[in-house]
Design goal:
This protein has eight helices and 22 strands. The chain is α+β, with helices and mostly antiparallel strands and 471 residues long.
Amino acid sequence: MSISLKARIAKTPLFIKIGVAVFLLGLGYFIYTRVKATKSNVPQYVTGTVTKGTLVVAVTGSGNISSVNSAQINTLVSGTVTKVYVKNGDTVTKGQVLADVALDTDSTLNSSKNWTSYLSAKNSLVNAQINKVSLEQGQVAASNSLDTATQSITTLGQAVSNAETAYTTAQQNWQAVVNDSHDDPNRQKAATALSAAAAAKDAAIASRDNYNQNVAASSLSSDVATQKYGTADDAISLSQASLSTAWLTYQQSLPQITAPTDGILSNFNLLPNTAISTSTSTSGTKNSTVVGFINLPASSLQAKVSLSEIDVVKVIPGQKVTLTMDAFPGKTYTGRVLAIDTSGTTSSNVTSYPTTIILDSGEANMYPNMAVNASIITSIVDNALLIPNGALQTANGATTARILTNGQLNSVAVTVGLSDGTDTVVTTGLNEGDSVVTGIVSATTTSAASSKSSIFSTLGGSRSGAASFGR
């Protein structure tokens, strides 16, 4: 009497059932890892998108609320007051002369030095403007050279085609003469013509290939010239900021003390024949002296922040500012640059420049010495194409962006402008919506050997142990 499969399974010992189940599970895992191990290590790309928007470039500084209703009157000169035009309580306007000073020798030399610095900054601005014109001419010349080389390629391509046609005709003539074995003079003539046609074809191809190299070189020169021209406006902006700083420094060294802003004069302590002295920092720069204050409208608040020597040259009075304070989390305040102390202060061989900011509005409980963080807006580019900085690479003076073409990573030449540290303005080479590569991540390939080891470990023994279990 036959026993059914179900009965056979029911009579099978439990440890055999468990062993078969473990074996089948391990076998399935082994097959899965074997398949996975055959997959190659395929790089994965992190991408971004070229977008259109507004780029805001700013410099940052930290400081504190310096005054709730007044602005300092600073001077960098030393000497003797000869005439005073105002008194405490008078309403003054920005730039108004408050007093005249007879400069001592040091201040006279310092004023001359600052005037020289101003003229140098002025010349630098002119040179930057001239350089822009030169770079524009270079860009046009490089573009024309590329056009000429490209046109030459077209002409040479036709020349190669004509030479190949002539060579084919010469071959046909040669073959016709060869078929006529009695025509020895014509055979020699045809051989000479064939040789000449071959030489002409080779020369035409060599000329075309040479111009192909010229086109590549001209294209690279054109890209570099375009990129250099794209930086000309940045150089002009930097020169303009340096000129403004030099002019402010010179103004502070003139034999006159002027009002830094509109308001009511207070604590102005100068009288005729009053001596003014200044101190010099360890770096050799003069420290400014406070000679009075100007009271501002009751709603006005001031903050003073420190800027580095790299950032201060980009800042001029009147620039817009956004500010945050630890005392008022989640709130942002606006203001404008009021004045820059161009004498600077030096500590541990690091020079910083106190910059006064007047707030547009504030809180009733904002008190002096509360900490502030300021972001001074130096440039705004509207309706700009923006590319993530991670997609850009620079080598040999040329900037490129990484893109994917049919799954392959390629680079395209681009011209870039200002950057806010995260995104950069791109003026040529890409379009809005283009996908760019910002990073590369490699997938991990599983080892076939480790997969085998894993399966036999799962089965609880060696390869021979697995075989004996299967009997």
